[in-house]
Amino acid sequence: MRIIKVSELQVGMRFSKPLLLDRDNIFINALVPISENDITRLSKFGFAEVMTLGEIVTEEPKESPVFAGGANEDPATAALRNSFHILQKNKDEFVRLYKDSFEAVQTLYRKVAEDKVIELNQIRSIAEQITDHVRANPNFSFMLLNYSLDGYYLYNQVVKATFYSLLIAMSMDYSRPKMVDLAMAGLLSDVGMSKIPGYISEKTATLNEEEYKVVKKHPLFGYQILTKNYKVKNNIALVALQHHENFDGTGYPQKMKKNEIEEASCIYSIADTFSALVSNRPWRRKFQPYEALKTMISVVMNRFDLNLLRMFLNKIAMYPVGSYVELSDGSIAQVLEANFSKMLRPGLIIVKEAGGEITKKERFVNLLNDNTVYISKSIDGNLIGQITK
Fold first, then answer.
1. Is the distance from CB of 200 to CB of 211 less than 8 angstroms?
2. 316: CB partners within 8 A, 6+ apart
């Protein structure tokens, strides 16, 4: 990440990647020229530095995106507006990547179930694409949290948990190759489920004790398949073996604990648990993201490496990007950006007004700067018809 002093910015300067107020909040989109007004606003609101993953671009732009918003819009609101437009602009790319990931996992797992020859090049390619998408779009959960495809629950679970695991990897400053390995490990993590009989793995009711014993064998099956049949690197295959181990020693299949469990497995376990909690299952309704995180940091926190869990919480926030909330004035909003200094006061886009009517004109609220309203509760986006999509 490149740090740039505001005093060094010049009118007309452009960067190949977005200019950020911090690691998660975009101020100016990639290739958008900096205006004198932009520099003035940064100074006025006390920003001494900005940052970017890009480089200064010297060639003339073919065209510059224009975002709605007044010239006097404060930097925080401007950043929210820009973030929203970037997310919308990248929506098609996300949907394409999610579908490709789902189909790649589905194809590979089915071939394993049928003892067919498989090629891992496609999974490696998908892992690279997911890594690059997460690195370039830190607010990807805006799309991910409310998106899934029809089909076997497991494939959605694997893809989503892989995305979320990379959030922690970013917090730990993982290199791109190391993130790609983690993504590949996530996509392959439940391959052992392919060897569990369908009447058990696809059962729509709670498993009985004997059925659960069978399911608990899938980590061993997965590890054996990956290492013996396909010669996958051990650091990748270990996630398949260990992702149901718990930090307190209560997991399976080997009841490992603490430092006996590989770091990548600890990371994926947190992502896998969150993804499972916020997804509907045949025997229970999904948790709202806020409730899922509360459960993870209270009821079941001993299962996780607390340092990694804290990193995940700091990255995703108590009201994760993409989740829906009701405000104290009765309006409904979708979380657009987290404010990590005050996690209960994120940046929002209003989707329903206090009177119940759908918001027709884009309206953004940064609760960090607006003390007139507060979040009263987390709500299910499905109940309001996913009206932002």
1. yes
2. 141, 164, 167, 274, 293, 338
| Structure confidence by residue, pLDDT tens digits, 17-74 | 878 877 656 777 777 788 887 788 787 767 888 888 888 887 654 443 444 455 556 7
**pLDDT of 21:** 78
374-389 per-position pLDDT tens digit = 999 999 877 765 443 4
Phi, then psi, of 37 in degrees rounded to 5: -65, -35
CB 146 within 8 A of CB 175: no
Check: CB of residue 141 under 8 Å from CB of residue 322: yes
Measured CA to CA, the distance from residue 238 to residue 233 in angstroms comes to 9
List the CATH code of the domain at 91-316.
Answer: 1.10.3210.10
pLDDT at residue 384, rounded to an integer: 67
Of 187, 221, 208, 185, the closest CA to residue 113 belongs to 221
Q: Tokens for 142, please give them.
A: 């805006």
Q: What is the pTM of this model?
A: 0.79
Closest C-alpha to 268, from 243, 251, 245, 240: 243
Q: Taking the domains of the chain in order of start, what are their residue ranges?
A: 2-57, 91-316, 324-384
Nearest to 343 by CA among 290, 277, 298: 290
Of the candidates 353, 371, 375, the one whose C-alpha atom is nearest the C-alpha of residue 290 is 375
